[in-house]
Design a protein that fits this description.
single chain, alpha+beta, Glycosyltransferase, 3-stranded antiparallel β-sheet, 11% strand, globular
């Protein structure tokens, strides 16, 4: 199902039941209930991940954060991973949580924090290798689709969408980041393991399709083969003007009809996704070189140069209050959309995805903008402050954005504030959610959203290694 259709806010009655069930969380003995699946009910177990959980639980003073880490960090492994061997190769299907479909973006992000542990856990290494293999199959099936089923014959509830739907595809919303994340995961896997075996002829064919798709969506000569329309009451679930979106002036950037939230863009040049594409292509050239495979690297270099030119010419806007910052979306004609939303890639997340951005002055100014009331989707209330987005609606903060704020910060005070807000946002469930109301964290969406859980685990583990003093109170 589409995320928006699936999401139901937790009612106050349900919240009362949850808080009653987990009442001992707040007991004087500071004990916490077992909410993680029993060992025999877990989809996948990693000895390396269990070691990290035990170490963190033992050594940090804030026992509620330790409990949250124990629940959240392994949530992808516990509940969403389907590992098997197919045709002699590892194959891993990863659902998002409460939706039985595999997003290329989510699946990459869900297993990303486990990469540093592959060297000490061969089974974990094989599982992540299986994600790369499964993503290769998905891209070859349809590079324009964002979400897939393991069952090649399963029909989507969105099979009536006016686009080239096939069985085995859950949704066919074209998002640039859907093709960037598999490259990021593959590159991260190679850096941690030195293993190039996933990068075989089939993977190379998928990467050639990635380049072909990016070039088509530069729309230098025509609109390209992709269009999408849906009969829906939500404007953000369909694409206007015959399914091709509002016009752009060709400038080298890649059009993205949808954002990483699965909401339609207003202006098709989605700036954070184009920066992500440039960085991913740079990683791809490294992987091709290491794999010793034949590939048109000159074509990749030319594409990167065009994207860089488009970003240099059209991605920035000068504001009186902040100075020059990155716009969220542009069209090449001078129009721009000033905002940011929680889903990654976002403007906030640029220094997380592209470490070199940390010292970029334009990024620093942009970060201040997106974490201010000048961003229409930055919400602040009694329960916390953070970025949301149109997908769930106004006044709903996404823990993803609070976690990303912490991951992109170098300031102890700000990082501690993010930890405190996240600790208070779980509404007694022991897990992160898709969103919560700015004034009441007990009103939330998606109680089972593995990406939010695993990213929180990644954040807390990073703080544990770099700033452990922040976890003692």
């Amino acid at each position: 199902m589409n995320r928006r259709r699936f999401v139901k806010q937790t009612s106050l009655a349900t919240t009362a039941i949850l808080l009653s069930r987990y009442a001992n969380v707040w007991g004087e003995d500071k004990t916490f209930p077992i909410v993680r699946p029993a060992e025999g009910d877990r989809n996948f177990t990693s000895k390396a991940v269990e070691r990290v959980i035990a170490e963190v639980k033992k050594n940090i003073g804030n026992k509620e954060l330790a409990w949250l880490f124990e629940n959240c960090f392994p949530n992808t492994l516990d509940t969403t991973v389907d590992f098997s061997i197919i045709d002699g190769k590892p194959d891993t299907y990863v659902i998002t949580g409460d939706i039985d479909a595999m997003w290329l973006r989510d699946s990459s992000a869900q297993v990303w924090p486990y990469l540093p542990l592959c060297k000490e856990d061969e089974e974990l290494k094989q599982m992540i290798k299986g994600v790369i293999n499964r993503q290769t199959k998905c891209i070859l099936k349809d590079p324009y689709a964002n979400a897939f089923y393991k069952n090649e014959h399963k029909k989507s509830p969105w099979h009536t969408d006016d686009t080239k739907m096939q069985r085995g595809i859950h949704e066919r919303k074209w998002e640039i980041d859907s093709l960037c994340y598999p490259i990021r995961l593959a590159h991260g896997y190679w850096k941690e393991t030195g293993d190039t075996s996933p990068f075989d002829a089939q993977w190379v064919a998928a990467m050639a399709l990635v380049i072909k798709t990016f070039k088509e969506q530069q729309r230098l000569e025509n609109k390209g083969p992709y269009s999408f329309m849906r009969k829906t009451e939500f404007a953000t679930d369909s694409v206007p003007l015959g399914g091709y979106g509002y016009p752009v002036r060709p400038n080298g950037l890649i059009c993205s009809m949808f954002r990483p939230s699965d909401d339609a863009t207003i202006y098709p040049y989605l700036v954070p996704s184009n920066y992500f594409a440039f960085a991913s292509l740079e990683q791809l050239t490294t992987l091709i070189s290491e794999s010793k495979q034949t590939f048109d690297t000159d074509g990749v270099s030319a594409l990167m140069k065009q994207i860089a030119t488009g970003l240099a010419n059209d991605s920035k806007i000068k504001l009186e209050k902040f100075g020059e910052i990155f716009a969220y979306e542009v069209n090449g004609y001078g129009s721009y959309n000033l905002m940011d939303e929680a889903n990654v890639p976002s403007l906030l997340s640029l220094s997380y995805l592209i470490p070199a951005m940390k010292s970029d002055e334009t990024y620093k100014r942009t970060r201040k903008f997106v974490l201010s009331k000048e961003n229409p989707f930055f919400f602040k209330g009694k329960a916390g402050e953070g970025i949301g987005g149109p997908h769930i609606g106004m006044d709903n903060i996404w823990p993803l954005s609070i976690t990303m704020r912490g991951l992109t910060s170098t300031d102890d005070t700000e990082i501690k504030m993010c930890l405190d807000m996240l600790q208070k946002s779980h509404a007694g469930t022991g897990f992160m959610h898709e969103s919560f109301h700015k004034d009441n964290a007990s009103v939330f969406t998606r109680p089972w959203f593995a990406w939010a859980n695993t990213l929180f685990g990644e954040f807390l583990w990073k703080v544990y290694k770099e700033r452990p003093h922040l976890l003692n109170s």
